[in-house]
Amino acid sequence: MQTDEKGELQMAGNAVDVLVHIDQTLNHERLAAVTRAIAAMSGVATAEGHDAKPHLVIVTYDSEQVSAQQILAAVKAQGVNAELVGL
């Protein structure tokens, strides 16, 4: 990913959104840790989770750099059960 003249991330490939549904109810710290793990992945532009909906994380990523299955694997590596919901 590259940044534009304003310093905002620009994806070289295909921007895709996916919703990750987490089966467990996570507290703020745990949801933040899962979200940070996703956001740290190469090819992920954003990963957002909110306390009001602790079962959901929306991820925007470059499908040429990372796959939805890799994102799901990273979530599961955090010790939670989850599945993908396409947007």
- Supply the number of helical segments: 2
* Shape label: globular
Rounded to the nearest angstrom, the distance between the terminal CA atoms is 22 Å
Low-confidence stretches: none
Q: What string, H for helix and E for strand, traces the elements in order? A: EEEHEEHE
- The overall average pLDDT, rounded, is 88
Strand order, biggest sheet? 4-5-3-6
The largest β sheet comes out as: 4 strands, antiparallel
Radius of gyration, rounded? 13 Å
**Residue share in helix:** 10-25%
Write up what this structure looks like.
It is a single chain. This protein is α+β, with helices and mostly antiparallel strands and 87 residues long. It has helices at 28-39, 68-76, and strands at residues 2-3, 9-10, 15-22, 44-50, 53-62, 82-86. It has a four-stranded antiparallel beta sheet with strand order 4-5-3-6, with helices on one face. Strands 1-2 form a two-stranded antiparallel ribbon. The relative contact order is 0.28. The model has no long low-confidence stretch (mean pLDDT 88).
